[in-house]
Amino acid sequence: MPRNGLLHLVTSGRGEPSALVAADRYWDAVMRAAPRPDEILDPSLAATIDQLPDLDDAPLPDAAFAARLEAELFQSAPAVRRLQIQRRAGVQAVRSDEAVTVSSWPAMTRRIAMRLAATAALLAIVAVSILTALWAGTVRVPDRDALPLVLAPGITDEKLLLQARFDTIPDGVLSAAIRRWALQPGAEVAMGRPDTNGVAAAAYRVETGALSVRPDGAMTVTRADATTPTTVPEANWTTLLPGDRMFIRSGVTSLWRNEGSHPVRLLEATFASRDVQPQPSGVLAYPVISDGPLAKPDQPVVMTVFEITLHPEGELLATSVPGLAMLKVESGRLVAIDVDGYGNPLPPAELGQATRFLGSFPPGRIFRSGNDEPVSLLLVTIADANPLGTGA
Amino acid sequence: MVVVPLADASVVRDETDLVARAQRDQQEFALLYRQYLPQVYRYCYRHLGNREAAEDATSQVFAQALAALTRFEDRGGSFRAWLFTIAHNTVTDEGRRRCPAVSLDMASALATPGPTPDEVVIQHEERQTIAALLRDLSPPQRQVLELRMAGLTGVEIAAVLGRSHGAVRKLQYRTLLRLRDKLGITDGQKEVRDAS
What we know:
A: 392 residues; B: 11 helices
């Protein structure tokens, strides 16, 4: 038997090297603890496969962890996530027992009052932003100055980063993805292709630097100081500065170039059908937060990304943000507080190193700073683009 | 009290039925959870390297799976491949988050001299573990070995990675060659193992 497995490659009837097929079937059999197949496999490779399970030192899960996770998964209320598609943007998911609790003003605690105030303010932000997106069409980001500067006691510094309406979403296994791109000076990358960020539509916001873009189809740009998007014609170069947003439709490719002397950084919101692939030299892409796999939505949706600061005295009720799909801790320490079956708050749950929450927003869960420092949060909502449910 | 069997188990006999029941009643998902918890946890552990991170990632995987279960469609692909697609995406994201890119300048500043004698001994002892083998593989090869160690078939790995089965076969074959060399396995050893 040849020592080198490559010498053992013989084409099988289906056009694939028999050694590859043999190794695959042998490995399948080992994994299933099934009888070994008849194909001839290099004995040294068979020995390698046989030996691997004996070398596995990954431990089993701790029994306490297993029990705790099962309890969390199945003793909580039915899933509220529903793929983050909020049918009616203006409706808040408030528990009926909570409404009863606040019926008497003297009994209302300061905490509940703050929660309701924050809820109302967040509702207003999201509702206004979604309606604005609908009015503008494919993409539009309201002027930040048009929003209230203070959401509610304990929640400040809201910033609407990105908002886009997605009419065309690719088939296949999808994930809702928020990513960052960085281009070093002189770097260049072709976007909208399968080997870069994929072919799905995407919205971007320039965070730092100056980015030169040349689309091969029409794309829209909303300048930092404007509220109305403008169209950049095909094959025209345009330069985007910090705060500028652009929306590139599915199937439109574009050439990005950093012609400046400082790095360019962008925030991206998209429905991706695959992971970001390795990028050319000087170009870096990395996920901020993503959720998947997702089924293709039945109707156009609006994805909104905004940032808030949660101060130690404030609280964020998860279900108060319509269509909240993802939450990421940008800085600070966050704790989650759930309620028991009677609506009583449970002890705060330390969140460890987890900084991302995907659809884990059961009724009653609130988020609060875990210490005396403010927490910076990135919130992502996904809502039906037809909030009145009149169809796509 | 919740009793969770922790031993690795074979594939559920009638998984399709189990998934369909779980889609109608989320409490039924508990059976799938118990079935796959060890595999998912150990998969996360192999990728992330410590218990805390593995528990964190495992929690995310099952929470996402439970929330998305109604959207799972049996189109010939297995539930296991679907579940491990979630797990793969989760550990990939988590791995990137936990290991942010370090610039070359920073990397050189962080560089340390060669291993101490104690480290050499530890490295020698570690050579015969999956964790040590994984460190010597390229990222695509690591993905294949991690999914293989989780018990997935070649077809399922192709589904998880979004690649063709043929491409996965080639990749895992190269992985095998590298593993064989790392393990120093020869034909003679195979004969000894067979004889024993």
